[in-house]
Amino acid sequence: MPLQRNWNPVRHNPTGFVWILIIALLIITHIAFGALDWQSGPWGIAIESNGSPGSAFCSMNYPGGTKTGNALAVYYQLQPTNIPQLWVFLTDGFWRQTSAESQFLTSYRLFRYYSSGDENRDHLTATQLSVIGTNNIGELQIETVYSNNATAGDQFRVTGLIILEKPDNLQSAMRAEIIVSNASGRAVSPFWQGHRDLAEQWELFGISSMYVADNLTGGLPSWYNSLDPTLRYVGITNDASFLNDGYSVNGTINVSTHDIKYIVTSNTTVALNHDTNLCPVVVVPGYDWYTQLVIRGKIAQELLVQHAYRSSRNHRIQVTGCSGITSVTTNLKWAATHNREDANIVDGDNVQIKLGMDDILNVWPADAVQTINLRLVTGDTRPVITALSVQAPDNVAIQWTTEPGERYTLQYTPTLGGTWSNIVTGVTGPSLGPQPIPPGFLHIVETNVP
């Protein structure tokens, strides 16, 4: 089952190469409804015991039953014989969402902070996960309850109220209300001002992913050789695909050498790269030694985490509201780190994207609560037509938005509600034509085969 997660704090340099092993375990699985613990309509859940290594087991409730485990897997029946697992909620505070065409790679992580004793509290402990059932429009409701307690006595309770939207073959999505409350019985003060200055003190929500290289085709960079001297994790680098340049020893499969390439907000795009000239470090005054920040203090209602070649791996995070300590969403700011010096650069977590409130919050008051509302979308972005020129009834030129490596099919139907037929396939985009097209309606379909 695709549920394991090996985790190392971003500010440390653990040893060993485990990323490719993780990738091998995080493939989508399919299941028969009879093997599920609970099923309602197209939805099904399975309570598993193969979550993150060493993570706690807790009670997991569902209508009509209770079971103990450390991973709550959610399935959805897209077709009579196609029942993929599209979500998993882990007891260490990680959530995963994928699309039907991709794998469990990039992870979501809940509230992370540095304690008053300078402890990096980057793991939570679930006390209960509950499947509530479906709402009146057929969406699945789930509630998660976690604690994040430090040895210094700091205690935080983190509740997630989740609505899983009905997926399709291209995208999965969920809406989440995440409630973080100080349950310490006293205020919690940061140990070091630097944690706030470096945007790592109060992280309400995070995205954990990795970047090694765009691809390893055409020769390996010297810095990669120093990390993997035996080339144990080099895959197929002499063909046209960049999605198999990495290699999984454990799973004997070939994979991409990165989960994400671009971090995109409304007015900024960061293209991750090992070269700091191509992906500059954001230097915080007084902290010149800290070379991991690539974004800091960014206000954005929407953030896109984008793969270089396959948009089925994209993640879109929308901030839809907040309340509590602050009810102003512009007080919530994005930061991102890329740990290029991580000795374990291929373990799947050298990129951390964080939504926090370090710029407005120093001491977390006793009993104070902060709530954030998010919508999380995973999978293909639909192509958007940007230009259409009809030079003659049988001579049409068309342009649309696209992403590197994608291919498209142009389809046609004479009437709305009619059957779509292919006019041209294998188009690399983002334009086509002039092209003879009969009167009717056009449709651009992303094929997802770079």
Rg over C-alpha atoms, rounded to the nearest angstrom = 23 Å
CATH architecture designation of the largest domain: Distorted Sandwich
How much β-strand is present in the residues?
A: 35-45%
What is the CATH class of the largest domain? Mainly Beta
Structural class: mainly beta
Find the count of extended strands (DSSP E, 2+ residues). Answer: 31
Tell me about this structure.
The structure is a single chain. By secondary structure, the chain is mainly beta. The chain folds into two domains: 19-212 and 258-379, Beta-galactosidase, Chain A, domain 5; 385-446. The protein is 4% helix and 42% strand. The protein is built from three helices and 31 strands. It has helices at residues 19-25, 193-197, 222-227; strands at residues 38-40, 43-48, 58-62, 65-69, 71-76, 85-90, 94-97, 107-109, 112-114, 120-121, 125-134, 140-149, 155-164, 171-182, 202-209, 246-248, 253-255, 262-264, 269-271, 293-298, 302-306, 315-324, 333-338, 351-356, 369-379, 385-392, 395-400, 408-413, 421-427, 431-435, 441-446. The strands form five sheets. Strands 1, 2, 5, 6, 7, 8, 9, 10, 15, 20, 23 and 24 form a twelve-stranded antiparallel β-sheet that branches. An eleven-stranded mixed β-sheet has the order 4-3-11-12-13-14-25-22-21-18-19, with no helix packed on it. Strands 26-27-30 form a three-stranded antiparallel β-sheet, with no helix packed on it. It is globular, with a radius of gyration of 23 Å. The two termini are 27 Å apart. Mean pLDDT is 85; it is low at 1-28.
